[in-house]
Amino acid sequence: MAEPSKPNHLPFLLIVGLLAWLVPGGGHFVLKEKKRSIIIFAAIVLTFCAGLYVGSIGVIDPVRAKPWYVAQIMNSPLVAGLGYLTATGSYRAYGWPNEIGQIYTSTAGLLNLLCIVNAVYLAYLRSTQTSGGRNVDS
Amino acid sequence: MWIADFGVLFCGLLQDVSSVVIATFVAPEELGTNPSSMLWLLPLAASISVAYKATKLPTIRAGNFIKESVVLFLSIVVFIIISVLVLYALAWVITE
Q1: Domain annotation covers residue A117
Q2: Whole-angstrom Cα distance, residue A96 to residue A113?
Q3: Which of B27, B47, B65 shows the shortest C-beta gap to A56?
Q4: Per-residue pLDDT of chain B (96 residues; tens, 9 = 90+)
Q5: In a domain, A14, yes or no
Q6: Does A113 touch chain B (CB under 8 A)?
Q7: Is residue A89 part of a domain?
Q8: Distance from A13 to chain B by nearest Cα, in Å?
Q9: Which domain does A67 fall in, by range?
Q10: The complex's ipTM?
Q11: Closest by Cβ to B27, choosing from A47, A85, A95
């Protein structure tokens, strides 16, 4: 007897993950978790902007601070644009880009990574429940 | 024709606005290394508490969310204070 074909959830999970990366809280917004998405957006964007204000855009340095940059780019792919600006010297930071700014922007990125994983997990739970699959919540 | 003109105008405006926004972030703040600079951990701890609780609570209700976030924030701060005291005591024992 042929096994019933399992629905492929991967494209949906990828879209949720990409949206959550593109805009903080975007993944939860797609899942109709509007309150959650607004809170996540506000918390992450404010933390990132506070880091940029305190430390200047010089804290996003893809050349000399690569480990920090990896955490920062988790905020959004738009951070790569800022990294390009600082790497090419289009906008110079006047002064020492301090470490507190680096910690703030990197922590915001890691928080967004947590939110991306959470959004994808929520999407997975919902897609398995709606398709009558095994309830992984229990 | 006017659509193309509008597009050029819009792109120029967008470029000017983004330049102004980015230009406000080119001068780092002078923070120094003094005891009061440790206060910068408080907004970060608050942000971590809020974002973490936004992912963990099954339902978001204002009262419960604020209470849970405040509890986590205070837990982080208390743990940091305990760590500081332990490290200070260790440093005192080693150096005295």
Answers
A1: yes
A2: 28
A3: B27
A4: 677 787 888 777 777 776 777 777 777 877 777 888 888 999 999 999 999 999 999 999 999 999 999 999 999 999 999 999 999 999 999 998
A5: no
A6: no
A7: yes
A8: 17
A9: 43-127
A10: 0.83
A11: A95
* Tally of structural domains, chain A: 1
User: How many CB pairs lie under 8 A apart between chains A and B?
Assistant: 84
Q: Which one, of A74, A71, A69, A97, lies nearest residue A84 by Cα?
A: A69
**What's the token pair of residue A118?**
């959470």
**Whole-prediction pTM value?**
0.82
Q: A25 in a domain, yes or no?
A: no
Rounded alpha-carbon distances, angstroms, from residue A30 to A13, A46, A113, A116, B33: 11, 21, 17, 12, 43
Measure the CA–CA gap between A68 and A65, rounded to whole angstroms.
Answer: 6
Distance to chain B for A11, nearest Cα, Å: 22
Query: Which of B55, B61, B66, B72 should be substituted to probe chain A, the one whose Cβ sees the most A Cβ atoms within 10 Å?
Result: B55
